[in-house]
Amino acid sequence: MKPEPTPSKTVPPAASTLLTGLPSGGLGGHISSALQAKDSTHASKMKKRIRLLLADDHPVVRKGIISCLAGQDHLQIVGEAADGREALKKARELAPDIILMDIDMPHMNGLAVTDLLRKEMPKVKVLILSMHSNTDYVLRIIQSGARGYVLKDAGTEELLRAIDAINQGEAFFSPEVARAALNQYVKGSGTVGAQVAQLTNREREVLVHIADGLSNKEIASQLGVGVRTVETHRERIMRKLNIHSVAGLTKFGISQGLVSLNS
Q: Is residue 173 within a helix (H) or strand (E), and if so which, with residue range?
């Protein structure tokens, strides 16, 4: 009777064999690649932070918004503005991703600022924050170039959804605002703002200042141009709008939402 063969033992592969499936550089190269990928992912996440500018004439409101957004790692508040003129200045300086903009502000209201930024800095998105939900404002807000509109009494979650949606290129409107926009459009008010579209950005700025009661000299000082240049803009505005008095221009500016009664 032949003896049974002794079962062969499985010899574990050598360490060098185990490393043959790794990238060139062996284990060290594999670890290095993994660390680089992790650093790259971290850097990518840091780059994705949404840069916000807050524009509201009430410090308490600005502090409240900052408090609501605290702890949101993907958001970064890069500046604050207390009036429309400052909002326009800081938008030009800081180039934020999104501006959280109030409507009723001194010197230049939020819609006028949004209107100017739409052509001058189209990459800057505007989210309007206001208490107004009536039909007099809604379509004008849309036509100004704002990407969204959230009521100030909305919850933090709704505000965050709006910011994220707008950052991704979508529009966002509070339900009450969306209904008002639809109702106004159905009633045939879709042509509001067509005359404003005829004006250049500089002419809109001059119109806002005229409606605010500034003289040609004061407007020239605000804009850093000559008085004669302002006079030329005024003449062109009157000709384009077929309005030939300061009172008429003021009334037009208010009706189009470029200035507010309390500005």
A: strand 172-173
Give me the residues of the chain with pLDDT under 50, please. Answer: 11, 14-24, 27, 30, 40-46, 189-192, 263
Instruction: Verify that 169 and 203 share a domain, yes or no.
Output: no
Q: Are 150 and 247 contained in the same domain?
A: no
| Residue at which a domain ends, from 158, 186, 214 | 186
List, as one string, the DSSP characters of 229-253.
Answer: HHHHHHHHHHHHHT--SHHHHHHHH
Q: How many CB atoms lie within 10 A of CB 156?
A: 12
Residue 45 has a pLDDT of: 46
Decide if 153 is inside a domain.
yes
Show the domain range for 146.
Answer: 47-186
Please tell me what DSSP assigns to residue 116: H
Residues sharing a CB contact under 8 Å with residue 98, sequence separation 6 or more, in sequence order: 50, 51, 52, 53, 124, 125, 126, 127, 163, 166, 167
Could you read off the pLDDT of 141-186 as tens digits, one per residue?
Answer: 877 889 989 988 888 999 999 999 999 998 888 877 776 666 655 5
Alpha-carbon span 254 to 198, nearest angstrom: 17
Q: What's the pLDDT at 43? A: 47
